[in-house]
Design brief:
It is a multi-pass membrane protein. Residues 4-193 form the ABC-2 type transporter transmembrane domain. InterPro entries: ABC-2_transporter, ABC2_TM. GO terms for molecular function: ABC-type transporter activity. The chain crosses the membrane at residues 18-39, 51-69, 99-121, 133-158, 164-184. With 241 residues, this protein is mainly alpha-helical. The chain has one domain. The protein is 74% helix and 0% strand. The protein is built from 10 helices and no strands. The chain is globular. The chain starts with a helix and ends with a helix.
């Protein structure tokens, strides 16, 4: 298992575009937004906080969404289309380990991405780190697992790598919209804000933990149920060939 993870991690690092978006893009976007003076000024719309303080949770959503819905479905679907999974099935190593390795690679890349984001948050803009570290870690892990499970579900159902990319892009855009990446959440109707808080990867739970409150058990529960349900369906319906 360790050998497979190492190999998959090496393959991940060989794709500069993937690494740039998954690991560095959230931090780069923070630096761009932070360069605008108005976004570094306290605003009543954010409870007298700065825009960049309130937007950090959305940057986490961007990182998790890219890993779970862009990288993972395309990689797994390509492996199946090229016969990699079929060849794995002829060895003592079960092909499912290759899928587990994809989730582990996502976890490693996600930790690096959020770790870099936190360093820049504190060092450059003096943004407080998560006030509820354990709650944030739980929300981050469940958010990543839920999106990765949805990515595996897409890879399981899509007939080709091309169609997997198309389906994943549609879900990715929805996640980004409800996560506040396209339109700041304070400009969205309350109904859409509430819906977005409960959808994976749990921007509501991430923001609560970052600002100091323990994440809502309801938010975490929805993420856990989504990860379990999507992962189970993906495992039962996955076609190795």
């Amino acid at each position: 298992m360790i050998r497979i993870v190492r190999t998959e991690w090496a393959l991940f690092l060989r794709e500069p575009g993937m690494v740039a978006f998954a690991v560095f893009f959230p931090t780069a976007l923070l630096l761009v937004l932070g360069a605008v003076p108005a976004l570094r000024t306290p605003d009543p719309n954010f409870g007298d906080q700065r825009f960049i303080d309130a937007y950090v949770s959305t940057l986490v959503v961007i990182a998790l969404a890219f890993l779970g819905l862009n990288r993972l479905p395309a990689t797994v679907a390509t492996y199946r289309e090229k016969g990699v999974l079929r060849r794995f099935s002829t060895t003592p190593v079960h092909p499912a380990r290759l899928l587990v390795a994809q989730v582990v690679v996502n976890l490693i890349a996600g930790v690096l991405s959020i770790g870099l984001l936190m360093v820049v948050c504190k060092a450059v803009f003096d943004i407080d780190l998560p006030h509820h570290p354990l709650g944030f870690a739980a929300a981050f892990l469940l958010g990543l697992l839920s999106l990765s499970a949805l990515g595996l579900l897409i890879a399981a159902w899509a007939p080709t790598a091309r169609s997997a990319g198309g389906w994943a892009t549609a879900v990715f855009m929805l996640v980004m919209f409800f996560g506040g990446a396209y339109l700041p959440r304070f400009l969205m109707p309350d109904f859409l804000v509430r819906v977005g808080e409960h959808l994976p990867p749990g921007v509501g739970a991430l923001q609560e933990a970052w600002l100091g409150a323990a994440p809502s058990p309801v938010h975490l529960g929805i993420l856990a149920v989504t990860a379990l349900a999507a992962g189970t369906v993906a495992a039962k319906s996955f076609r190795w060939e």
